[in-house]
Design a protein that fits this description.
Elements: H1 5-10, E1 28-31, H2 46-54, E2 58-62, H3 73-78, E3 82-84, H4 87-91, E4 95-97, H5 104-109, E5 115-118, H6 127-135, E6 139-142, H7 154-175, E7 196-200, H8 204-216, E8 219-223, H9 227-237, E9 242-244, H10 248-257, E10 260-263, H11 277-281, E11 288-291, E12 312-315, E13 318-321, H12 331-352, H13 355-361, H14 363-368, E14 369-372, E15 375-376, H15 379-385, H16 392-395
Length: 397
């Protein structure tokens, strides 16, 4: 019996497509000492360095880079890092890891086609910064833009957790300060009315500020125009607290009674002013304002940027704390937090076979890239500075 043409076609061998194996790459990471004003953090802890060197990667750290975070050169050396006093040598590494964006002088020290991983701090940047990076065909990745598997921004969230918790702890210190405080203990003691805390905003900063204040026994009120955010905050706190939309009369009434007011609002560009100077004038004498969102303008009309050296000023008899970089005050905690997020990304990048493979394999990593070999690939940055950009999906297939 002869086979039909259809049967013959069925019996023909088919091609089998095999996955191309990924080749592990070796990284050479340079960690320079931070030179920006008041920056005390470092991107990698000795434990993270130990993990990277154990996987065959090289790490070069500038001497005293971890000093402000209570890490010694010996700890880094024992972890397998190469410690040097030569700043240029560190900046000559193929991968540069920084907390703050590099200065013009630091960009000059970088080699062509370096991979830069740092914060970008878009609100404080200049067009010339991107031009300088582009001239050296540098690929740059921003901490703030890296996404997690669930679509969240892990670095931003982690630092917001620190800022939220710290805002309450700092306010507690200011309330008992001999010069400007009014001698109140933040919390709830038997027979004494609880301290009242007003939080404006219902994001991560607000959630951790509320958790800390509630843990100390304070009475907390949260205001935000997003019912979804307020509901999520209530669920995350696992208890019912006073929440309200931003209605002027209700907010003014709460501010007049509160001991601490925390600004935790965020806007796409500048944070909107929620509390006018007139409303501040009606607050208690000696009350404390913690404007955590001062880095994007602040939500109190009376706020002015302060420093860690001179963190407060008094206006309308109200103490204002308006330091834009609160996590840097807790440099070791913040360093561990950043290191816990960045080191797994570096290890994964090496396992994937390098930068290009990581961009293809990891959407969250790809989202962090804003310059690829000198080409701007982030639309929001391009719109902000009126620059041309290229879609990274069209550059890397």
């Amino acid at each position: 019996m002869s086979l039909t043409p259809f049967t013959k076609q069925q019996l023909l061998p088919q091609e089998e497509k095999l996955e191309v194996g990924k080749k592990k790459s070796e990284l050479f990471i340079g960690v320079p000492k931070e030179t920006s004003y008041q920056e005390r953090r470092i991107c990698l802890t000795p434990d993270a360095v130990s993990s990277l060197t154990a996987h065959g990667h090289r790490v070069m750290i500038e001497s005293c880079a971890g000093e402000s975070s209570s890490y010694t050169d010996k700890e880094y050396s024992d972890a397998g890092a190469e410690v040097t006093q030569d700043t240029k040598k560190v900046f000559s590494c193929p991968v540069i890891l920084k907390v703050e964006p590099p200065t013009d002088k630091e960009i000059e020290m970088m080699k062509q086609k370096t991979l830069l991983i740092s914060a970008i701090q878009l609100k404080t940047q200049r067009k010339e910064y991107f031009d300088a990076l582009a001239a050296k065909k540098i690929t740059a990745l921003a901490f703030e833009f890296i996404k997690d598997e669930d679509g969240s921004y892990p670095t931003v969230k982690s630092l917001s957790e620190i800022a939220g918790t710290a805002s309450v702890l700092i306010a507690a210190e200011l309330m008992i300060n001999e010069r400007i405080g009014k001698g109140l203990l933040l919390g709830n003691i038997t027979g004494v009315p609880p301290t009242e805390v007003v939080i404006i905003g219902a994001g991560t900063v607000a959630e951790f500020a509320a958790k800390t204040a509630i843990g100390l026994g304070a009475s907390v009120k949260v205001f935000d125009n997003s019912i979804t955010k307020l509901r999520r905050l209530q669920n995350n706190l696992n208890q019912r607290i006073f929440t309200s939309t931003l209605q002027e009369k209700a907010l003014l009434k709460a501010l007049m009674r509160c001991d601490v007011a925390i600004g935790a609002m965020r806007g796409k560009n500048r944070t909107p002013i929620i509390v006018s100077e007139t409303m501040v004038e009606h607050m208690k004498k000696g009350a404390v304002i913690m404007d955590v969102c001062i880095d994007t303008g602040g939500c109190f009309e009376t706020s002015e940027i302060t420093t860690h050296e001179k963190p407060t000023f008094v206006k309308n008899n109200v103490v204002h704390y308006c330091v834009p970089n609160i996590p840097s005050r807790y440099s070791k905690t913040a360093s561990i937090s950043i290191s816990n997020i960045i080191s797994p990304f570096l290890l994964q990048m090496a396992e994937n076979g390098g930068l290009e493979s990581s961009i293809r394999c990891n959407k969250g990593f790809k989202n962090g890239i804003y310059l690829y070999h000198g080409l701007l690939t982030n639309k929001s940055i391009a719109d902000w500075f009126s620059l041309s950009y290229r879609d990274i999906n069209l550059i890397i297939f």
